[in-house]
Amino acid sequence: MASVSDTLPHKRERRKQDRPGELLEAALDLFVEKGFAATRVEEVALRAGVSKGTLFLYFPNKEDLFKAVVRENVVHPVNQGAAELAQFQGKTGELLEWMMLQWWRRYGATKASGISKLIMSEASNFPDLATFFREEVIKPADAMVRSVLQRGIDQGEFRPVNVDLALHSVMAPLLFLVMWKHSMGPCCPTSEQIDPEAFISQHAQLLVRGLSNS
Questions:
Q1: pTM of the shown model
Q2: Which CATH superfamily is domain 1-60 in?
Q3: pLDDT value at residue 104
Q4: CA distance 82 to 8
Q5: What span, in angstroms and rounded, lies between the C-alpha atoms of 120 and 79?
Q6: Domain limits of the chain?
Q7: Which of 135, 154, 177, 206 is a good FRET partner for 126, with 20 to 30 A between their CA atoms?
Q8: Three-class SS of residue 123?
Q9: Which one, of 176, 35, 59, 140, lies nearest residue 132 by Cα?
Q10: What is the model's pLDDT at position 19?
C-alpha cells in the first residue's frame, strides 16, 4: 500500500506547478504599482522568488508576461460575464444594473483594475500592447454591453438609440471609478470617498430611466 507521502506531489514538484501563477501574481503587483515601462523582469522574478532565467522559461519577454497577466485577470472575467449574461431571464434594466455591478465586483474592486489605468497612461508609448488590449478586452466588453442594450431595444423596453454611442454611457462611470481608485481616491479624506456600488446602482437606474420606452 502506498503511503500518504507517496501519493502527494513533492514540494519541488508543487513549486514548479505553481510558478506560472506566482509569476503572474508578482507581475500584476508590479505592473499596477509601477506601470509597464518601469517594471523590470528582474523585479518580477525576485518578487516571485525565482531567477530571471526561470521566468523566461515561462514567458519569453515582458510583453508576453503582460499579455498573460491581462488574460488571467481581465479577459477571463469578461468571458465569464458574457456567458452569464446569456442566461439572464429578467428585465433588461435589471440586467444592465447587474452587469455593471458584477464588472465592479469581479474587476473594478480588485487590484487588477490598475491595468486599466496602466493602459490609459501608457498606450501611446506601447501601441502593440494597446492593440492587444483593444482586441482582447475592449472589443469583447463593448460587444457584451452592446448586446444588453440591443436586447432592451428588441424587447421594447428601451427606446431606439445609437447603441455604439450608448455603450460609452455605460462604461464611462465604471472607468471613472477605476481611475479614481488608482489616483485621487487614496489621497482624499473619508468624507469625500465614493461608495462604488451605490454610485453604480444610481447611474444604472438613471440610464434605464433615460432609455425607457414607456
A1: 0.86
A2: Homeodomain-like (1.10.10.60)
A3: 95
A4: 37
A5: 22
A6: 1-60, 63-211
A7: 177
A8: helix
A9: 140
A10: 87
Mean predicted lDDT score pLDDT of the chain: 91
Q: Which residues contact 6 (CB under 8 A, 6 or more apart)?
A: none
Q: Would the CATH topology of 1-60 be identical to that of 63-211?
A: no
For residue 166, give the nearest of 149, 152, 178, 153 by alpha carbon: 149
Cα separations (Å) of 16 from 10, 49, 60, 71, 201?
Answer: 10, 12, 17, 21, 44
Grid coordinates representing 153 are 431595444
Query: For residue 47, is pLDDT > 70?
Result: yes
pLDDT, residue 8, reads: 46
Confidence of residue 34 (pLDDT cuts 50, 70, 90): very high
Angle at the Cα of 130 (from 124 to 136), degrees rounded to 5? 165
Dump pLDDT digits (tens) for 129-158. Answer: 999 999 999 999 999 999 999 999 999 999
Q: 63-211: what CATH class?
A: mainly alpha
Sequence-ordered alpha helix ranges (H) in the chain:
4-7, 11-34, 41-48, 52-58, 62-70, 76-85, 92-103, 114-122, 127-133, 139-154, 163-181, 196-211
